[in-house]
Design goal:
The protein folds into four domains: about 1-130 and about 260-310, Gnk2 domain, C-X8-C-X2-C motif (Killer Toxin P4, Chain A); about 140-245, Killer Toxin P4, Chain A, CATH 3.30.430; about 320-405, Phosphorylase Kinase, domain 1 (2-Layer Sandwich), CATH 3.30.200; about 410-640, Orthogonal Bundle (Transferase(Phosphotransferase), domain 1). α1 packs across α7, α2 (about 45-55) runs antiparallel to α3 and α4 packs antiparallel against α5. The protein is built from 17 helices and 26 strands. It is globular. By secondary structure, it is of the alpha+beta class. This is Cysteine-rich receptor-like protein kinase 10. Pfam families: PK_Tyr_Ser-Thr, Stress-antifung. It is found in: Membrane.
C-alpha cells in the first residue's frame, strides 16, 4: 500500500512537471478565405454551428485529433482540430479547442473557409472536402526576436538546424500520431529543440512533403521560429518548449535573452515520465491502429460524423433507378465521352451533387463478388490528385461506376489542341507535373495498397476547375503484395508509346514501368506534342530519343513548346526534362522512384544523376543499347490502348 501511495505521488509530480499547467489558449494567427462567403442565419451557418459544437465536445479525444462533417445539399461543411502532441489528454488541449470553436466565427464571421492557430491547437473548417489531403497554403511564418548572430558558431548552428528539422520531418511522417521532437547539441550549453506535427489523417508521404516544404521556409537567421500550415507545422527553439516541463512564460516565448535550464529536482519526474509515456504510447498506438483502418469519405449525411467508414459494400452501392434519373436515362446530351471500358455520362444526384457515371461494357468476365470487393478497395484510394470513386451500381448485367465530376475534362484536350494550349502556361504545366507525381507516389508508396496504374497517359489525367490534375481510369491497374517488386503477364494492357520496353517485350511490370510512362508524359507536357507525333514524322524516332539528342547536344530547351518561349522558368524546364529522361531509361533499375521524383521537383538542392540513353520504338521495334526485338503490334498503334476484357487484375496486398 505504501509503495502504491509513493507511485501515485511520483505520478502526480510527473503530471505537474511534464505537461503545461497553463490552460490559456495562446492565439498565434488565423486566415479567412474571402472568396467564399455565406449569408448570416443561413443553412450553412446552422451546419457550421453544429460542426463546431461537435468538434468542441470531442476535444477530450485521446489522440488529440478529430474531424467531422455536417452535410445537407449544397451546404456541406467539414472541419477538424489538432492539439499539440505534448498536450494531448490535458486541460490545455480541451481549453484550446473550446476557445478556438468560440473565437473562429468571430474572426471569420461570413467566410466559409478558415484556419486558426493557437500555441496548443489548430482548428480548420471549409465548405470543400479536405480530409486526408495535403494543404500547403496559406503559410504563417513566426520567428524568435533573438537573432542567431548571438550564437558564436553560426555555421555550426545552421548546419545543426537543417539536420534537426529534416530528421524531425522524417520521424513525424513515420509516427502513428504524426508528431515528433528532437534535441541536438549545438555547442557547449546550447541545445536546439525541434518539433514537427501533421494532421493525423495525412498519409506518410504527404506529411513528409508538407514538412519538407516547411523546412525550406524556416527562418535560419533567428534563434527560433516556426512555420504554420493547414496540414502541418514545424518549430525550433534554443530552449525546451515541449513535454518535459511547463512551457516558458509568454515573455520567453516571444524571444528569450538567456538560457533555460531544467532543475535537478525534475530529473526523477522526467525518468518516471519516460516510463509512463511508453505505456501511454502503447495504448495510444492500439487506438490509432484501429482508427487508421478507417478512411474519410464525402458521404451524404445530415448528422455530424467523425470517422466515415467506407469498408462495406452497402456504403458504396447505388440503385439503377438513381443512376437512370441522374443521367436522364443515359441521354446522349449527358454523354461526356467513350473509353475502352464503355460510355461516360455526366449526372446530377438528387442532392445536387454532380458526378461522372461510367457504364461499363458487358464483355467483362469478372464475377459479381470480385467486382464488389474491387470497388471497396478502389474507393479507399483518396488523394487530391486521384479521381475519387463515390460508388457503383450492380444490377442484372449492368456494371456502373460513379466518380466525382471533374470540370475541365482531360489533359490531352488542352495540351494537344492548338487553340487551348495557351491556357496551359508553364506555371500550370509545372503544377500538373508535380500533382501527377504526388498522385502516383500515393499509389506506389502511401496508400494501404501498392498499385501499378499501367496506363498513365495524358487522356487519363483529368483537370479540375483550378487546373489541378487528377489521375483517372484504374481499369488496367494491378495491386501488388506488400513485398512484391514486379510481376509478369501474358496479357499486355496499356497504351503503346507509353509502355516501358520490359513490359512491351516481356510482360514485366513494376513501379518502374509506371515511371517510364510518367517520363513520357512529362516530356509531352513540356513539348506540347503527342509521343505518337514523332512516329509519324521524320523528325526523330520518338519523343524520348528526340529529347535525349537535344540533351546530349546541350540544347535541351529547344524541346520546350514554342507557345511558352516568352514566359517560363529556365531552371524548372531543364530540371523537368532531366527528370523525364531519368524516367525513360532502358534499365528499370536506373529509373528513380516516384518518391525521389517528388523530392527532385520540390527541392533544388537535390542533385540529379546523369541520365543514360533511353530505349525507343522504331518501325515496329523496341531498340535498346544492345538488342532489338520485334513487337507483335505495328507501331502505328502508338496511341491505342490495349484491352483484353477485364476491368482490373487485383491481388489483395
Amino acid at each position: 500500500m505504501k509503495s502504491m501511495t509513493t507511485l501515485l505521488l511520483i505520478f502526480s509530480v510527473f503530471t505537474l512537471l511534464s505537461f503545461p499547467t497553463s490552460t490559456d489558449a495562446d492565439y498565434l494567427n488565423h486566415t479567412c478565405a474571402n472568396t467564399t462567403t455565406f449569408t448570416p442565419n443561413s443553412t450553412f451557418q446552422s451546419n457550421l454551428n453544429r460542426l463546431l459544437s461537435t468538434l468542441s465536445s470531442n476535444a477530450n479525444r485521446s489522440t488529440g485529433f478529430y474531424n467531422a462533417s455536417v452535410q445537407t445539399p449544397n451546404n456541406a461543411v467539414y472541419g477538424l482540430f489538432l492539439c499539440r502532441g505534448d498536450v494531448v489528454g490535458t486541460d490545455a488541449c480541451e481549453t484550446c479547442v473550446a476557445t478556438a470553436t468560440a473565437e473562429a466565427p468571430q474572426r471569420c464571421p461570413v467566410e466559409k473557409e478558415m484556419v486558426i492557430w493557437y500555441d496548443y491547437c489548430m482548428l480548420r473548417y471549409s465548405n470543400e472536402f479536405f480530409f486526408s489531403r495535403i494543404t500547403d497554403k496559406p503559410s504563417v511564418y513566426l520567428w524568435n526576436t533573438q537573432n542567431a548572430s548571438s550564437i558564436t558558431d553560426q555555421n555550426r548552428f545552421k548546419e545543426v538546424l537543417l539536420a534537426t528539422v529534416t530528421e524531425v520531418a522524417h520521424q513525424t511522417s513515420n509516427s502513428n500520431f504524426k508528431f515528433a521532437t528532437k534535441e541536438t547539441n549545438v555547442s557547449g550549453s546550447i541545445t536546439l529543440y525541434g518539433f514537427g506535427q501533421c494532421t493525423q489523417d495525412l498519409f506518410s508521404g504527404d506529411c513528409y512533403l508538407c514538412l519538407l516544404v516547411a523546412v525550406t521556409q524556416i527562418p535560419r537567421t533567428s534563434a527560433g521560429g516556426r512555420v504554420l500550415k493547414p496540414s502541418c507545422n514545424l518549430r525550433f527553439e534554443i530552449y525546451p518548449f515541449y513535454s518535459s516541463g511547463p512551457p516558458p512564460p509568454a515573455s520567453i516565448r516571444e524571444g528569450p535573452k538567456g538560457k533555460s535550464k531544467t532543475p535537478t529536482s525534475k530529473i526523477v519526474a522526467i525518468a518516471v515520465a519516460i516510463s509512463v509515456s511508453v505505456l501511454l504510447f502503447v495504448v495510444g498506438y492500439c487506438c490509432i491502429t484501429r482508427r487508421a483502418r478507417k478512411k474519410y469519405n464525402q458521404a451524404a449525411a445530415d448528422e455530424p460524423s467523425g470517422e466515415n467508414d467506407i469498408t462495406t459494400v452497402e456504403s458504396l452501392q447505388f440503385d439503377f433507378a438513381t443512376i437512370q434519373a441522374a443521367t436522364s436515362n443515359f441521354s446522349d446530351d449527358h454523354r461526356l465521352g467513350k473509353g475502352g471500358f464503355g460510355q461516360v455520362y455526366k449526372g446530377t444526384l438528387s442532392n445536387g451533387q454532380e458526378v461522372a457515371v461510367k457504364r461499363l461494357s458487358r464483355n467483362s468476365c469478372q464475377g459479381t463478388e470480385e467486382f464488389k470487393n474491387e470497388m471497396v478497395l478502389v474507393a479507399k484510394l483518396q488523394h487530391r490528385n486521384l479521381v475519387r470513386l463515390l460508388g457503383f451500381c450492380l444490377e442484372g448485367e449492368e456494371k456502373i461506376l460513379v466518380y466525382e465530376y471533374v470540370l475541365n475534362k482531360s489533359l490531352d484536350c488542352f495540351l494537344f489542341d492548338p487553340e487551348k494550349q495557351g491556357q496551359l502556361d508553364w506555371s500550370r504545366r509545372y503544377q500538373i507535373i508535380s500533382g501527377i507525381a504526388r498522385g502516383i507516389m500515393y499509389l506506389h508508396e502511401d496508400s494501404r495498397l501498392r498499385i501499378i496504374h499501367r496506363d498513365l497517359k495524358a487522356s487519363n489525367i483529368l483537370l479540375d476547375g483550378d487546373m489541378h490534375p487528377k489521375i483517372s481510369d484504374f481499369g488496367m491497374a494491378r495491386i501488388f503484395e506488400v513485398d512484391q517488386t514486379q510481376a509478369n503477364t501474358n496479357r499486355i494492357v496499356g497504351t503503346y508509346g507509353y509502355m516501358s520496353p520490359e513490359y512491351a517485350m516481356h510482360g514485366q511490370f513494376s513501379v518502374k514501368s509506371d515511371m517510364y510512362s510518367f517520363g513520357v508524359l512529362v516530356l509531352e507536357i513540356i513539348n506540347g506534342k503527342k509521343n505518337s507525333h514523332f512516329f509519324q514524322t521524320n523528325a526523330a524516332e520518338n519523343l524520348a530519343s528526340h529529347a535525349w539528342k537535344l540533351w546530349r547536344d546541350e540544347i535541351s530547351l529547344e524541346l520546350l513548346d514554342p507557345s511558352l518561349r516568352d514566359s517560363y522558368s529556365r531552371t524548372e524546364v531543364i530540371r523537368c526534362i532531366h527528370i523525364g529522361l531519368l524516367c525513360v531509361q532502358e534499365d528499370p533499375a536506373d529509373r528513380p522512384t516516384m518518391q525521389s521524383v517528388v523530392l527532385m521537383l520540390n527541392g533544388y538542392s537535390v542533385n540529379l544523376p546523369l541520365p543514360k540513353e533511353p530505349a525507343f520504338f522504331l518501325q515496329g521495334k523496341v531498340v535498346g543499347n544492345t538488342s532489338m526485338t520485334t513487337l507483335e503490334s505495328d507501331i502505328n498503334k502508338s496511341s491505342m490502348s490495349v484491352y483484353n476484357g477485364s476491368i482490373t487484375e487485383l491481388y489483395p496486398r
